[in-house]
Amino acid sequence: MELSDKDERLVELLAEAGLNRNIARVVVYLSKVGETISRDIEREANLRQPEVSLAMKELKNLGWIKEKEIKRKGKGRPLKSYKLSLDIKDIVKELVEKKREELKKLESELEELEELVGLK
């Protein structure tokens, strides 16, 4: 399931809102598929393995992802399965609130700047 044009636009807007583009791609992909393994994320979100690993690490730090191990038959490392721990709407809400706070702070600083130089 590759990302549609609408999904790509969502990735673009999430990146504009402050998310790393690769993290945004992973978030959008996981929001579509639910739970999956990193190999599928690489293939379908068009990312390299190190990019997926870094995105997963950051998503874990943000608390936006759940990870579980899938035991393999025979030898080898267990696979890791990932899914979002929040709905994408909640992730967007969190990003929007953060950006609005940054905007308020910037507006306040710009007003102070204008006052300091006598523009107001």
UniProtKB/TrEMBL annotation:
Residues 89-116 form a coiled coil. Gene3D superfamilies: Winged helix-like DNA-binding domain superfamily/Winged helix DNA-binding domain. It comes from the Archaea. SUPFAM superfamilies: Winged helix' DNA-binding domain. InterPro entries: UCP037373_trxn_reg, WH-like_DNA-bd_sf, WH_DNA-bd_sf. Keywords: Coiled coil. This is ArsR family transcriptional regulator. It comes from Geoglobus acetivorans.
